[in-house]
Design goal:
The protein is α/β, with parallel strands linked by helices. It has one domain. The protein is 39% helix and 14% strand. A five-stranded mixed sheet has the order 1-5-2-3-4. The longest helix has 20 residues. The two termini are 14 Å apart. InterPro entries: DUF6932 (IPR053860). It holds the Pfam family DUF6932.
């Protein structure tokens, strides 16, 4: 379930009725991709961004990256239309994923990354999919995963200009994307 925006027009960093001392009540909030569409698509600009996100996810899965999750953040999961008088320009995502089968060894993974380089180039992803995307390889040492997680969560759990603490969402990498796509293209998603 996506929590309601707080009085600042952002997702709360934790569920206020439970408090910040319960890990289950803290961001990132786990939701489905259809929940994301239902909660944040609906305008032409948001629908275009959502289609880009769904296309990017499809390319990751097509390539063999199928085990993981994504953090969804940035102005896309804020009420920026009211707060900033503009639509979001993109969606910020951090993909945490395991290497595809047969690509677990570093040399195989490096070859995979070269063969699928457009899935890892931030500028290409932003131009093609309206996603400001970052990738965390879950096969690296745990200490590095923790360090990268700390960095990305710290960055995306605050507004850049105001330092306002805010929540982010987490969706499974493989989900009900075909249903989510129908919601976007069918125009039945409600804008926030």
């Amino acid at each position: 379930m996506i929590p309601n925006f707080n009085h600042s027009g952002v997702l709360p960093p934790f569920l206020p009725e439970i408090g910040p001392t319960d890990a289950a009540a803290m961001a990132p909030f786990r939701v489905s991709i259809t929940d994301l569409v239902s909660g944040f698509a609906g305008s032409p600009e948001r629908d275009a961004i959502m289609r880009g996100l769904l296309d990017y996810r499809a390319e990751l899965v097509r390539s063999g990256i199928q085990s993981g999750f994504q953090w969804i953040a940035g102005s896309f999961v804020e009420d920026c239309e009211s707060n900033r008088n503009r639509s979001p320009a993109d969606v910020d995502i951090v993909t945490f994923a395991r290497r595809p089968p047969g690509r677990k060894q570093y040399s195989d993974w490096a070859a995979f990354c070269r063969e699928n380089s457009d899935l890892f180039k931030r500028s290409v992803i932003k131009a093609n999919y309206s996603c400001d995307a970052f990738f965390i390889d879950l096969e690296i040492p745990a200490e590095m995963v923790v360090s990268y997680s700390r960095f990305w969560f710290g960055l995306f759990s605050h507004q850049r200009e105001t330092y306002l603490w805010k929540g982010i969402l987490q969706v499974p990498l493989v989900g009900d994307d075909s249903q989510a796509r129908e919601l976007v293209t069918g125009g039945s998603a409600d804008a926030p």
